[in-house]
Write a structure and sequence with these properties.
alpha+beta; 34% strand; Elongation Factor Tu (Ef-tu), domain 3; single chain; Rossmann fold
Length: 423
Amino acid sequence: MPAKPHLNLVFIGHVDHGKSTTVGRILYDTGHVDPHVLEQFKKEAEQKGKATFEFAWVMDRVKEERERGLTIDVAHQKFETDKIYFTIIDAPGHRDFVKNMITGTSQADGAVLVVSAAEGVQAQTKEHIFLARTLGVAQLIVAVNKMDATQPPFSEARFNQIKTEVSGLLKAVGYKVDDILFVPTSSYKGENITKAPGQMTWYKGPTLIDVLNTLKEPPKPTDKPLRLPVQDVYSITGIGTVPVGRVETGVMKPGMKVTFQPADKVGEIKSIEMHHEQIPEAVPGDNVGFNVRGVEKKDIRRGDVVGPVDNPPTVAKSFTAQIIVLNHPSVITPGYTPVFHAHTAQVACTFEELLKKLDQRTGETKEEKPEFLKTGDAAVVKIRPTKPMVIEPFKQFPQLGRFAIRDMGQTVAAGQVIDVEKR
Protein backbone atom coordinates (compact mmCIF):
# COMPACT_ATOMS: atom_id res chain seq x y z
CA MET A 1 0.00 0.00 0.00
CA PRO A 2 1.80 3.18 -1.13
CA ALA A 3 1.70 6.13 1.27
CA LYS A 4 -1.20 8.49 0.64
CA PRO A 5 -0.31 11.93 -0.69
CA HIS A 6 0.18 14.37 2.18
CA LEU A 7 -1.15 17.93 2.11
CA ASN A 8 -1.08 20.84 4.53
CA LEU A 9 -4.51 22.43 4.61
CA VAL A 10 -5.28 25.81 6.16
CA PHE A 11 -8.71 27.16 7.09
CA ILE A 12 -8.94 30.94 6.68
CA GLY A 13 -11.66 33.56 6.91
CA HIS A 14 -13.20 36.18 9.17
CA VAL A 15 -13.52 35.58 12.90
CA ASP A 16 -16.73 33.72 13.89
CA HIS A 17 -17.57 32.57 10.38
CA GLY A 18 -17.23 28.95 11.48
CA LYS A 19 -13.68 27.87 10.66
CA SER A 20 -13.10 25.94 13.88
CA THR A 21 -16.58 24.45 13.81
CA THR A 22 -15.99 23.29 10.23
CA VAL A 23 -12.70 21.67 11.21
CA GLY A 24 -14.29 20.06 14.28
CA ARG A 25 -17.16 18.73 12.19
CA ILE A 26 -14.77 17.27 9.59
CA LEU A 27 -12.73 15.54 12.32
CA TYR A 28 -15.91 14.26 13.98
CA ASP A 29 -17.52 13.04 10.77
CA THR A 30 -14.33 11.29 9.60
CA GLY A 31 -14.10 9.41 12.92
CA HIS A 32 -11.16 11.34 14.38
CA VAL A 33 -13.09 12.53 17.44
CA ASP A 34 -14.84 10.31 19.95
CA PRO A 35 -18.60 11.03 20.29
CA HIS A 36 -18.22 10.99 24.13
CA VAL A 37 -15.69 13.81 23.93
CA LEU A 38 -18.01 15.88 21.78
CA GLU A 39 -20.92 15.26 24.15
CA GLN A 40 -18.72 16.50 27.00
CA PHE A 41 -17.77 19.64 25.03
CA LYS A 42 -21.41 20.27 24.25
CA LYS A 43 -22.35 20.23 27.95
CA GLU A 44 -19.43 22.50 28.85
CA ALA A 45 -20.25 24.91 26.04
CA GLU A 46 -23.86 25.24 27.17
CA GLN A 47 -22.77 25.80 30.80
CA LYS A 48 -20.40 28.56 29.70
CA GLY A 49 -23.08 30.27 27.64
CA LYS A 50 -21.29 29.23 24.43
CA ALA A 51 -23.92 26.89 23.00
CA THR A 52 -23.03 25.65 19.49
CA PHE A 53 -19.29 25.95 20.18
CA GLU A 54 -18.67 22.25 20.82
CA PHE A 55 -17.19 21.48 17.41
CA ALA A 56 -14.93 24.50 17.58
CA TRP A 57 -13.53 23.24 20.87
CA VAL A 58 -12.17 20.14 19.22
CA MET A 59 -9.41 22.36 17.83
CA ASP A 60 -9.38 25.01 20.54
CA ARG A 61 -7.98 22.92 23.32
CA VAL A 62 -6.35 25.88 25.02
CA LYS A 63 -8.39 27.07 27.99
CA GLU A 64 -8.00 30.76 27.19
CA GLU A 65 -9.34 30.14 23.70
CA ARG A 66 -12.44 28.49 25.12
CA GLU A 67 -13.15 31.36 27.48
CA ARG A 68 -12.81 33.91 24.70
CA GLY A 69 -14.34 31.73 22.01
CA LEU A 70 -11.47 32.54 19.66
CA THR A 71 -8.70 30.60 17.99
CA ILE A 72 -5.36 32.03 19.03
CA ASP A 73 -2.54 29.67 18.26
CA VAL A 74 -2.08 27.73 15.08
CA ALA A 75 -3.33 24.28 15.98
CA HIS A 76 -2.14 21.31 13.97
CA GLN A 77 -4.38 18.30 13.61
CA LYS A 78 -4.23 15.32 11.28
CA PHE A 79 -7.04 13.54 9.48
CA GLU A 80 -7.32 11.36 6.44
CA THR A 81 -9.88 10.68 3.79
CA ASP A 82 -9.83 7.53 1.67
CA LYS A 83 -7.50 9.35 -0.75
CA ILE A 84 -5.37 11.93 1.10
CA TYR A 85 -3.58 12.36 4.40
CA PHE A 86 -4.11 15.93 5.66
CA THR A 87 -2.44 18.08 8.27
CA ILE A 88 -4.90 20.84 9.15
CA ILE A 89 -3.59 24.20 10.15
CA ASP A 90 -6.53 26.04 11.73
CA ALA A 91 -5.65 29.66 11.15
CA PRO A 92 -6.98 32.31 13.48
CA GLY A 93 -9.25 34.87 11.87
CA HIS A 94 -8.89 37.32 14.68
CA ARG A 95 -6.80 40.42 14.12
CA ASP A 96 -4.20 40.03 16.89
CA PHE A 97 -3.49 36.58 15.68
CA VAL A 98 -2.68 37.32 12.07
CA LYS A 99 1.00 36.52 12.70
CA ASN A 100 0.11 32.90 13.46
CA MET A 101 -2.09 32.89 10.42
CA ILE A 102 0.95 33.85 8.31
CA THR A 103 3.17 31.13 9.72
CA GLY A 104 0.35 28.66 9.08
CA THR A 105 -0.55 29.81 5.61
CA SER A 106 3.01 29.98 4.32
CA GLN A 107 3.21 26.20 4.83
CA ALA A 108 -0.14 25.44 3.25
CA ASP A 109 -0.67 23.50 0.02
CA GLY A 110 -4.36 24.32 -0.06
CA ALA A 111 -6.78 26.61 1.74
CA VAL A 112 -10.45 26.50 2.65
CA LEU A 113 -11.87 30.02 2.87
CA VAL A 114 -14.89 29.94 5.17
CA VAL A 115 -17.45 32.70 4.52
CA SER A 116 -20.61 32.93 6.59
CA ALA A 117 -23.80 33.08 4.54
CA ALA A 118 -25.40 34.94 7.42
CA GLU A 119 -22.83 37.74 7.81
CA GLY A 120 -21.45 37.77 4.27
CA VAL A 121 -18.07 39.15 3.16
CA GLN A 122 -16.22 41.01 5.95
CA ALA A 123 -12.98 43.02 6.11
CA GLN A 124 -10.89 40.03 7.06
CA THR A 125 -12.43 37.87 4.38
CA LYS A 126 -10.77 40.28 1.93
CA GLU A 127 -7.51 40.44 3.88
CA HIS A 128 -7.21 36.66 4.08
CA ILE A 129 -7.88 36.26 0.34
CA PHE A 130 -5.10 38.75 -0.39
CA LEU A 131 -2.78 37.07 2.11
CA ALA A 132 -3.39 33.60 0.70
CA ARG A 133 -2.52 34.98 -2.72
CA THR A 134 0.55 36.90 -1.56
CA LEU A 135 1.83 33.91 0.38
CA GLY A 136 1.43 31.69 -2.64
CA VAL A 137 -1.45 29.34 -1.75
CA ALA A 138 -2.44 28.12 -5.19
CA GLN A 139 -5.38 25.82 -4.40
CA LEU A 140 -8.42 27.41 -2.81
CA ILE A 141 -11.87 26.09 -1.88
CA VAL A 142 -14.68 28.35 -0.65
CA ALA A 143 -17.09 26.99 1.96
CA VAL A 144 -20.18 29.18 2.21
CA ASN A 145 -21.03 28.23 5.78
CA LYS A 146 -23.98 28.78 8.15
CA MET A 147 -26.46 28.11 5.36
CA ASP A 148 -28.94 27.17 8.11
CA ALA A 149 -28.90 30.82 9.23
CA THR A 150 -29.95 32.47 5.96
CA GLN A 151 -33.42 33.94 5.38
CA PRO A 152 -35.17 31.68 4.44
CA PRO A 153 -32.90 28.90 5.74
CA PHE A 154 -30.70 27.16 3.14
CA SER A 155 -31.41 29.87 0.57
CA GLU A 156 -29.98 29.22 -2.89
CA ALA A 157 -30.28 32.92 -3.77
CA ARG A 158 -28.11 33.91 -0.79
CA PHE A 159 -25.52 31.27 -1.73
CA ASN A 160 -25.33 32.65 -5.27
CA GLN A 161 -25.08 36.22 -4.00
CA ILE A 162 -22.09 35.35 -1.79
CA LYS A 163 -20.53 33.34 -4.57
CA THR A 164 -20.68 36.38 -6.87
CA GLU A 165 -19.20 38.71 -4.24
CA VAL A 166 -16.35 36.40 -3.29
CA SER A 167 -15.63 35.59 -6.95
CA GLY A 168 -15.09 39.30 -7.56
CA LEU A 169 -12.55 39.50 -4.72
CA LEU A 170 -10.75 36.36 -5.86
CA LYS A 171 -10.54 37.56 -9.44
CA ALA A 172 -9.24 40.93 -8.25
CA VAL A 173 -6.19 39.37 -6.57
CA GLY A 174 -5.48 37.09 -9.49
CA TYR A 175 -7.15 33.74 -8.73
CA LYS A 176 -8.70 31.89 -11.67
CA VAL A 177 -12.30 31.78 -10.47
CA ASP A 178 -13.25 28.96 -12.87
CA ASP A 179 -10.88 26.64 -10.98
CA ILE A 180 -12.37 27.43 -7.56
CA LEU A 181 -15.19 25.35 -6.12
CA PHE A 182 -17.87 26.95 -3.93
CA VAL A 183 -19.55 24.59 -1.48
CA PRO A 184 -22.63 25.51 0.60
CA THR A 185 -22.32 24.06 4.13
CA SER A 186 -23.77 24.16 7.59
CA SER A 187 -20.92 22.83 9.70
CA TYR A 188 -22.89 23.02 12.90
CA LYS A 189 -25.76 20.99 11.46
CA GLY A 190 -23.43 18.71 9.52
CA GLU A 191 -24.95 19.61 6.16
CA ASN A 192 -22.81 18.87 3.12
CA ILE A 193 -19.55 18.25 5.01
CA THR A 194 -19.17 14.49 4.59
CA LYS A 195 -22.69 13.56 3.54
CA ALA A 196 -24.90 14.99 0.82
CA PRO A 197 -27.17 17.78 2.05
CA GLY A 198 -30.68 16.85 3.10
CA GLN A 199 -31.95 20.43 3.30
CA MET A 200 -30.39 21.94 0.16
CA THR A 201 -32.11 19.91 -2.49
CA TRP A 202 -31.15 22.55 -5.09
CA TYR A 203 -27.45 21.75 -4.62
CA LYS A 204 -26.20 18.93 -6.82
CA GLY A 205 -22.43 19.38 -6.36
CA PRO A 206 -19.81 17.59 -4.27
CA THR A 207 -19.61 17.65 -0.44
CA LEU A 208 -16.74 19.47 1.26
CA ILE A 209 -14.82 16.21 1.76
CA ASP A 210 -15.32 15.30 -1.93
CA VAL A 211 -13.81 18.65 -2.85
CA LEU A 212 -10.87 18.20 -0.46
CA ASN A 213 -10.18 14.92 -2.22
CA THR A 214 -9.64 16.81 -5.48
CA LEU A 215 -6.68 18.78 -4.07
CA LYS A 216 -3.35 17.92 -5.63
CA GLU A 217 -0.18 17.16 -3.70
CA PRO A 218 2.28 19.90 -4.63
CA PRO A 219 5.00 18.74 -6.99
CA LYS A 220 8.27 18.03 -5.20
CA PRO A 221 10.73 20.41 -6.88
CA THR A 222 13.53 17.83 -7.19
CA ASP A 223 14.67 19.32 -10.51
CA LYS A 224 15.75 22.56 -8.82
CA PRO A 225 19.09 23.06 -7.06
CA LEU A 226 19.24 21.89 -3.44
CA ARG A 227 18.03 24.37 -0.81
CA LEU A 228 17.87 23.36 2.85
CA PRO A 229 17.44 26.06 5.51
CA VAL A 230 19.24 24.99 8.70
CA GLN A 231 17.03 24.74 11.80
CA ASP A 232 19.69 23.58 14.29
CA VAL A 233 23.28 22.39 14.39
CA TYR A 234 24.57 19.64 16.68
CA SER A 235 28.03 18.34 17.41
CA ILE A 236 27.78 14.62 18.08
CA THR A 237 30.69 12.76 19.66
CA GLY A 238 32.20 10.20 17.30
CA ILE A 239 30.21 11.54 14.34
CA GLY A 240 30.95 15.25 14.05
CA THR A 241 28.86 18.18 12.88
CA VAL A 242 25.19 17.38 12.25
CA PRO A 243 22.94 20.18 10.91
CA VAL A 244 19.18 19.55 10.88
CA GLY A 245 16.56 21.00 8.54
CA ARG A 246 13.91 20.40 5.92
CA VAL A 247 14.76 20.01 2.25
CA GLU A 248 12.76 22.66 0.37
CA THR A 249 14.00 22.02 -3.18
CA GLY A 250 16.40 19.66 -4.93
CA VAL A 251 17.93 16.40 -3.74
CA MET A 252 20.61 15.85 -1.10
CA LYS A 253 22.91 12.80 -1.41
CA PRO A 254 25.96 11.56 0.47
CA GLY A 255 29.19 12.57 -1.28
CA MET A 256 27.83 15.98 -2.37
CA LYS A 257 29.94 19.06 -1.82
CA VAL A 258 27.74 21.76 -0.35
CA THR A 259 28.08 25.34 0.75
CA PHE A 260 26.43 26.99 3.76
CA GLN A 261 25.40 30.61 3.10
CA PRO A 262 25.79 33.31 4.31
CA ALA A 263 28.38 31.57 6.56
CA ASP A 264 30.34 30.83 3.37
CA LYS A 265 31.57 27.42 4.56
CA VAL A 266 32.03 24.37 2.31
CA GLY A 267 31.72 20.76 3.39
CA GLU A 268 31.00 17.28 2.15
CA ILE A 269 27.84 15.33 3.05
CA LYS A 270 28.89 12.02 4.67
CA SER A 271 25.49 10.56 5.60
CA ILE A 272 21.82 11.55 5.93
CA GLU A 273 19.33 10.40 8.57
CA MET A 274 15.57 10.70 8.81
CA HIS A 275 13.63 9.36 11.82
CA HIS A 276 16.93 7.86 13.10
CA GLU A 277 17.49 5.78 9.99
CA GLN A 278 20.12 6.34 7.33
CA ILE A 279 18.63 7.19 3.95
CA PRO A 280 20.29 7.19 0.49
CA GLU A 281 18.90 10.61 -0.45
CA ALA A 282 16.65 13.36 0.88
CA VAL A 283 13.94 15.04 -1.24
CA PRO A 284 11.68 18.09 -0.74
CA GLY A 285 9.53 17.82 2.39
CA ASP A 286 12.00 15.53 4.20
CA ASN A 287 13.12 16.67 7.65
CA VAL A 288 16.65 15.34 8.00
CA GLY A 289 19.86 15.45 9.99
CA PHE A 290 23.06 15.09 7.98
CA ASN A 291 26.69 14.62 8.91
CA VAL A 292 28.95 17.06 7.11
CA ARG A 293 32.75 16.88 6.96
CA GLY A 294 34.94 20.00 6.86
CA VAL A 295 32.54 22.26 8.76
CA GLU A 296 32.55 22.91 12.50
CA LYS A 297 29.48 23.53 14.63
CA LYS A 298 30.68 27.04 15.50
CA ASP A 299 30.92 27.96 11.79
CA ILE A 300 27.24 27.59 10.94
CA ARG A 301 23.92 28.39 12.57
CA ARG A 302 20.12 28.42 12.23
CA GLY A 303 19.14 30.59 9.26
CA ASP A 304 22.03 29.44 7.07
CA VAL A 305 20.95 27.72 3.87
CA VAL A 306 22.64 24.68 2.32
CA GLY A 307 23.07 24.47 -1.46
CA PRO A 308 25.36 22.88 -4.04
CA VAL A 309 28.80 24.46 -4.46
CA ASP A 310 28.08 25.16 -8.15
CA ASN A 311 24.69 26.79 -7.42
CA PRO A 312 24.97 28.41 -4.00
CA PRO A 313 22.04 29.98 -2.16
CA THR A 314 21.72 33.70 -2.94
CA VAL A 315 23.06 36.09 -0.32
CA ALA A 316 21.27 39.42 -0.67
CA LYS A 317 22.92 42.81 -0.60
CA SER A 318 19.40 44.18 -1.13
CA PHE A 319 16.12 42.94 -2.59
CA THR A 320 12.84 44.26 -3.96
CA ALA A 321 9.62 42.74 -2.70
CA GLN A 322 5.88 43.05 -2.83
CA ILE A 323 4.40 43.43 0.64
CA ILE A 324 1.05 43.94 2.29
CA VAL A 325 0.95 45.90 5.54
CA LEU A 326 -1.29 43.92 7.87
CA ASN A 327 -1.16 45.71 11.13
CA HIS A 328 1.11 48.66 11.83
CA PRO A 329 0.31 51.04 14.70
CA SER A 330 1.56 54.11 12.79
CA VAL A 331 3.23 54.31 9.38
CA ILE A 332 6.19 52.72 7.59
CA THR A 333 8.70 55.16 6.12
CA PRO A 334 12.17 54.72 4.57
CA GLY A 335 14.73 53.90 7.28
CA TYR A 336 12.31 51.68 9.25
CA THR A 337 14.19 48.52 10.40
CA PRO A 338 11.96 45.67 11.70
CA VAL A 339 12.84 41.94 11.77
CA PHE A 340 12.23 39.85 8.66
CA HIS A 341 11.38 36.17 9.14
CA ALA A 342 12.22 34.13 6.04
CA HIS A 343 12.58 30.31 6.11
CA THR A 344 14.60 29.74 9.32
CA ALA A 345 16.35 33.13 9.28
CA GLN A 346 15.44 36.19 11.36
CA VAL A 347 17.28 39.29 10.25
CA ALA A 348 16.69 42.98 10.88
CA CYS A 349 16.24 44.69 7.51
CA THR A 350 15.87 48.34 6.53
CA PHE A 351 13.21 49.76 4.23
CA GLU A 352 15.47 51.64 1.83
CA GLU A 353 12.90 52.85 -0.69
CA LEU A 354 9.13 52.74 -1.06
CA LEU A 355 8.90 52.23 -4.82
CA LYS A 356 5.15 52.14 -5.42
CA LYS A 357 1.82 51.61 -3.78
CA LEU A 358 -0.45 49.02 -5.43
CA ASP A 359 -4.16 48.70 -5.83
CA GLN A 360 -4.92 45.45 -3.97
CA ARG A 361 -7.77 44.57 -6.26
CA THR A 362 -5.97 44.92 -9.58
CA GLY A 363 -2.27 44.93 -8.68
CA GLU A 364 -1.93 48.15 -10.72
CA THR A 365 0.30 50.97 -9.47
CA LYS A 366 -1.71 53.47 -7.43
CA GLU A 367 1.09 55.83 -6.47
CA GLU A 368 4.78 56.09 -7.38
CA LYS A 369 7.28 56.65 -4.54
CA PRO A 370 4.76 57.08 -1.71
CA GLU A 371 6.03 58.91 1.39
CA PHE A 372 4.71 56.27 3.80
CA LEU A 373 2.71 53.03 4.03
CA LYS A 374 -0.03 52.23 6.55
CA THR A 375 -2.15 49.23 7.53
CA GLY A 376 -3.97 47.80 4.52
CA ASP A 377 -1.52 49.12 1.92
CA ALA A 378 0.08 46.86 -0.65
CA ALA A 379 3.38 48.06 -2.08
CA VAL A 380 6.64 47.30 -3.85
CA VAL A 381 9.64 48.17 -1.68
CA LYS A 382 13.43 47.98 -1.68
CA ILE A 383 14.91 46.29 1.38
CA ARG A 384 18.48 46.13 2.69
CA PRO A 385 19.35 43.45 5.28
CA THR A 386 21.50 44.74 8.17
CA LYS A 387 23.60 41.57 7.99
CA PRO A 388 24.06 38.89 5.33
CA MET A 389 20.97 36.76 4.74
CA VAL A 390 19.90 34.20 2.14
CA ILE A 391 16.69 35.03 0.32
CA GLU A 392 15.61 33.98 -3.17
CA PRO A 393 13.21 35.38 -5.76
CA PHE A 394 9.72 33.93 -5.17
CA LYS A 395 9.41 32.90 -8.83
CA GLN A 396 12.49 30.67 -8.63
CA PHE A 397 12.24 29.36 -5.06
CA PRO A 398 8.83 30.16 -3.55
CA GLN A 399 9.82 28.38 -0.34
CA LEU A 400 12.69 30.84 0.21
CA GLY A 401 11.01 33.86 -1.34
CA ARG A 402 8.30 34.55 1.26
CA PHE A 403 8.67 36.42 4.51
CA ALA A 404 6.79 37.92 7.43
CA ILE A 405 7.85 41.24 8.98
CA ARG A 406 7.62 41.52 12.76
CA ASP A 407 7.99 44.41 15.15
CA MET A 408 6.76 45.22 18.66
CA GLY A 409 5.66 41.63 19.23
CA GLN A 410 3.37 41.45 16.22
CA THR A 411 3.45 40.74 12.52
CA VAL A 412 3.22 44.06 10.74
CA ALA A 413 3.49 42.88 7.13
CA ALA A 414 4.05 39.90 4.84
CA GLY A 415 5.35 39.59 1.35
CA GLN A 416 7.32 37.90 -1.37
CA VAL A 417 10.61 38.65 -3.09
CA ILE A 418 10.56 39.96 -6.66
CA ASP A 419 14.27 40.33 -7.28
CA VAL A 420 17.58 40.02 -5.38
CA GLU A 421 20.72 42.12 -5.75
CA LYS A 422 23.50 39.66 -4.86
CA ARG A 423 26.12 40.48 -2.29
